[in-house]
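Data availability excerpt. The first of two example chains:
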Amino acid sequence: MKRLGILLSGRGSNFEAIADQVAAGRLDATIAVVISNRPEARGLDLARERGLIAVPLSAKGLDREAYDRLLVEELHKHAVDLVCLAGFMRLLSANFVRAFPQRILNIHPSLLPSFPGLDAQQQALEHGVKITGCTVHLVDEYLDAGPIILQAAVPVEDDDTVESLSARILAQEHRIYSEAIRIMLSGSFRIDGRRVKLR
């Protein structure tokens, strides 16, 4: 059974959605470890409540390369097959990406390449788009730029706030992230340049 490593920085709602799919037997994988760069992250408590290994790994006082070396060591220690970023608020170094080639997933709350980086929902509202959504993509060494696996569209309502739009996007994130993990674990895809083609 394939082993997932979940990296998070906050509340862990995408982690919970993945863990629910694993627990229900709808995702043929096990969560080997949950790691957070913020020891106070609620996601770590949620992982412990589920009986999972939860590792606080603070980045304080460390540069990106040094921290990422620790992160790679921890993931290798738990024999992780696929790394899933679930609200992990750090840019990963090229060395980290090379340690897990085409084995790192991220979910982002916009239809990439639109609105990369922070505050994607706010960016969508400020630009007046009629449709936004979320994207699961492979992680490369550039910000929110790797090949796209799945996307889900979310209409923007005239009276939306950042909070209301974020909540509707999050519901779609919870749906498509596990599906993207399923695709990755099954190997039922091929990468052709920037395109991820499903078999």
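And the second chain:
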Amino acid sequence: MATPLTTADVEIIEAQTVYQGYFRIDRYRLRHRLHDGGWGAEITRELFERGQAVAILLYDPDADALVLIEQFRIGALTVGWQPWLIEVVAGIIDPGESVEQVARREVREEAGCEVLDLVPIHSYLVSPGGTSETVSVYCGWVDSRGVSGIHGLIEEGEDIRVLVIPAFEALAMLERDELRNSATLVAMLWFALNRDKLRQQWGGKR
């Protein structure tokens, strides 16, 4: 078996920021080693610099219900999909913040409730061919009683509706292809496999 290629097999020739607005785009000139042992030709790649994010699927084991949110997404609009997507809570991790700190803060801001416990699910690259964005996905234990309303930060243009959905109905939405956000899909597929274990771990403790 060939020796696995690593970051040491990449040569960055030049890196520069070509756009800085609400988001950032960097342009790289680079070359990398090939699987046959040689070096490839120089290539240029633009990279959407999004940063690191955390996403949290909120579950109330006693009610066997999920707390999801609905908000407008420009990406869905531009591909002709329904632009108000049902999603898990999520937010960007700023420098100096821990993943857990951001998770708890975003749950308060977007869903108006508190996380009682957090279980890590997965971390992944959203679209590694064009963006550096990573997402760390968690499942959070919440009490869904009284959770409702519109949330989010006005200064960030957020208008977020909170939904408390029975677990069986949320899983049916997954089956009907009604969930279109990648972090939500990752979380829901994991939840389908771990629902019973979560109910045993968290149920009856509030």
